[in-house]
Amino acid sequence: MASSGRIFAAMLGTLCLLLTTPGCMLVAVDAGHEGVLVQKPFFFGHGGVEPVPATTGRILLAPTTEVIDVDVRPLQYSEHFDIISAENAPVSFDAFLIANVIEGRSPDLITRYGFNWYQNNVKEAFRTFVREEVQKYPLFELTTKPATRARLQDAVEQHGIPVRLNRVVIGSILPPKGVLEQTAQTIIQEQRKITMIEFQKAEESREKAEKQRGMADRAYREHLGLTAPEFVDLRRIEVQKEIVQHAPSNLTIIMGMEKLGINLPPISTTGQ
Hints:
Blueprint: H1 2-20, E1 25-29, E2 33-39, E3 48-49, E4 57-61, E5 65-71, E6 75-84, E7 90-101, H2 106-113, H3 117-134, H4 146-159, E8 163-170, H5 177-224, H6 228-245
Antiparallel strand pairs: 1-4, 2-3, 2-5, 6-7, 7-8
């Protein structure tokens, strides 16, 4: 009974509050957001921004009070750039700034810089810093630089903006289509040049090997005292001998000779 009485009393109190505050409304503040209360009285009292924000939940507001919803989660802001690199090459890329409003400081942010704080106070500084940073490097050496985020954070702190910078990212930096095509053609030509050089080296090595083998054959022929046709017949016999030695069965070979007779050197009988 006591519990039922307390519930009834709470309901009666809520009803009386609603009856005594005609026109009031309930406003919900989502998780990850803060509600900045701006009072705008019709006749009495003073207006302005409440120094303490409303946090997650529902709040009862007078009809003369406005709620400005501020997202305090990390948000991404992007900017597109078409600029000239350090080697005077035009490049296009996107830069991303990830930042969030400091929790509990949203009323100060709205009072001093307004709801569009990024557009009014950070955007141009961000673009200037990124532009200066990118223009320091050649076309194919541009990457994300941690120094950019540090410089931006210093600028934000100097202005007293209650915003925390989490990360600065430079997206893929691409030259114009014509520059990409020229680069691809240059790479193809360089690869073709390397291939031709390697092919020439291989041909020179083969030619050198052929010359050395020819000189060796000539020295061998002169050592045996054979004429050129006789040496050709000898080499033919040696080749056919290798074929017969490696044949799986008996093999008969009939071949023509350059000369009807050939004076072969004595065949060693060692091991027979």
